[in-house]
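Quick one:
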Amino acid sequence: MRGRPIHLGSVSVLVCLLTAALAPAADVDILWPDQPLPVIDGAVDPVWSLATKQLITITINGSAPTDPADCSGSWQALYDSQYLYVLIDINDSKLYNDTALADSWQDDSVELYIDGNNSKGASTDENDFQYRFGWNVDSPSADMYEFFHRPGSLVGVEYMMGVTFDGYRVEIKIPWSAILGRPGAPIGQLIGVDCFINDDDAGGATRESQVAWHATTGGGWNTPSLWGTAWLTPGLKAGNPKPFDGCEDVKTQLIEWVAGRTAKFHDVYFGANPTPGTDEFKGRQPSTTYYHSAGFTPGTTYYWRIDEIEADGVTIHTGDVWSFTIAPLTAWKPSPADAAKEVPLDTKLTWRAGQGAILQHVYLGKNFNDVDQGSQNTEQYIMVETTYAPKALVPETAYFWRVDQFDGRTWQKGPIWSFSTVAPGTGKIIRQWWMGIGGTTLSDLINSSRYPDSPDGWEYLSVFEGPVDWANDYGSRLRGWLFVPISGDYTFWVSGDDETQLYLSTDEDPGSKQMIASVPGWTSSREWTKYPEQKSKPQSLTEGKRYYIEALMKEGTDGDNVAVAWQGPASTTRQIISASYVGATPFIPLRACAPTPADGAADVTQTPTLGWMAGGKTAKHDVYFGTNKNEVANATTASTGIYRGQQNLDVTSYTPSELPLQWGETYYWRIDEANAVHPDSLWKGSLWSFTTANYISVDDFEAYTDDVGSRIFQTWRDGWGFTEPAPGYPGNGTGSAVGYSQAPFAEQTIVHGGSQSMPLAYDNSGTAGKTRYSETQREWASPQDWTINNLKALTLWFYGDPNNAVEQLYVAVEDNAGHVKVIYHPDQTAVQKDAWQEWNIELTQFSAAGVNLKAVKKMYIGLGNRTSPKASGKGSLYFDDIRLYIRRCVPSLAKPIADLSGNCVVDYADIEIMASAWLSTGAALAADLNADNDVDLKDYAILADAWLEEILWP
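Output:
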């Protein structure tokens, strides 16, 4: 079996007082088996033998299958208090999946229909669901679809798909909360159900047949009245509690349940004890399935259990423990939660009303006693609603609040709650989400009554990116204030699934925001160039200013993601925006902020200039810099070597005196803000860090523009040449063409790193000489030293095309004396692979041929045979990230045999992998070091013998 389950978050909407009804006749009974339920793995567990098979054979669309082996099947179902379990077996000898997800009914697929309240309507309503599972055992999660997009319909759903001898199988587990909007099974009640099979025998967007279990026409897909009826038979234990388990705000004094199917007596346990026992026993009842309490205490949580007794009086089926909470007389369940920290400044206060409340009186202030006494020093408001927007919260401040409630006779004084607001400055991006909202467009989110004031949750992010494959049927908003450390033009990109929009204000006011980029459909995670709308026009931003920035995303089903990147003076390549430049408030902090490079940045040049934004009351900057984290964090002005002196207010940059910095080294730095005349000075700065690159960039193709003089083909010269700037270049005579004939001249979709790569077209079909090979060359004004820091390798990335003519790819290097060495790629067919490929070349291959690597003058990239040209074909490739590396980890070229993790050293990461595979059997196990098809002590001995062995390349 192949495939994987989907595990999503949970959403509970508690509706406490629904009742169960005795079932009339049904088309099928669904059993609560009173034994372990199936594991969702695509295998048929023994418990499935208790569920009757329902045949799926009624042709409702297309031509009737000529053979049951071509398109038929069966379904079975079981259930418990939390889930409905369904097993569907499909007979099909030809299987296709080549249509978009929304139209996957044209492919081989299964459709499961559920009518949660068996309303049998002529059209679907909010209780009706269509779950579709497309044939795709390699990646089943990409082909699950809930057509009607009911709120929360996919939350918590798990399924597995697998191959069978006759076709394929789908095993499914659906929470009752996804179907009913509340936890708990409707024991003893009816639900509507049907199952369709779609059959595609020839591929393409045409379904040949559709068969059903119960519906008799193709209109059954949206007509619940045509679906069958299933009765959920009671189990041996009591079920379907009323109030429902976990219910809040309960006011009734009556509890009810559905009896177990063999029960003659019911032992009732009830009280405030989470584990009801002898003290909570309320007696044995002969037939009634309800219990009336004498009275409940407001604000108390009660726990209860019903043990079902059979006729012999001895056989007992111990029940589950259920609970519910009685609403208190006062306000309760505050948001922000009591004692919450780092609360955003525009947070709205919400709470649950106590019993009988008709008016709310809010008190808010910075002093506990003022709020306790209802002083005039507090912010106050009397209202009907249970949501209050404070007038103006201040950053980094503690607040106290309470809500008194009037029930028509008296005011009930509420408890005092507290929270503290977030500090000003950078480091936090606010993410909020709204669950249970169907659809894929942002209008579905914006038109919700809960948006924007009542999110289901929020958090702070360290980068401008939400989680991937997190949930379904929700919307999210990522926002904050962008602190700009360097003036200039910035370009922004947004990616997301589904519809996504990016807004930027002209100042710190959210009201002045304007949309600058969008995703009109959907993209994969960090897919920046699927739509032209994803990229903004250059935005002119000013150092020291703050700009409100916001991304909105609406997710339907599958593959949710959202991310925002930028490129400009603070980030010379396209990067996800770091929270180092974004804050949760627009206020300038007292401490330095918005560091450049961003905190934690990697692959930083060895010659950086550090920059920051000044604190709000500073007059001078104390600079600290070094390689020891603790020493920099604790340094003072007396710390020789780490303290780098004091700079004036207008100097917000520092260039380390020891440039160039060490390669692959992590550096730490700190800026303390000082003001000799301010009583609160000094403001110690945060500890920031960055790591330098372990390479030199020959060319990353990011600096080229569409302007004359900086176009990509004016540096990487080709066979076409150029006319401006004068005197131009006539071309090198080969069949090469760098860049495109129209702007943008560089490639901006197929890129390996950053936002651009170099397109290179080749045409080797000429009559003789240079016209039979294609080559581009770059020449440096001053010879380059490729030996510094003991450089070992030249690396470049390239991307081919299956339509390319097979041709030899090569790289050549020439020194200032004219010595040239050509290195050919070992695989001629590499030019036909449409994926990024890394080509590593040892520099000794050039130096051994007489090339002086201390004085490299030219570099060539070409296709064909440079020395013996032969007529060939055409094609095009992309090149990116040409670098010079020292010895480093390249697992595909050199690593210890016991290195399982691919970090080129035998260490604890490899032990974890071996432990995970311990005693596994079979061929090709990564941890099977001695290749005996077992992971055992012999493999561990090999790993132990190679402990801490490290092999780098070259």
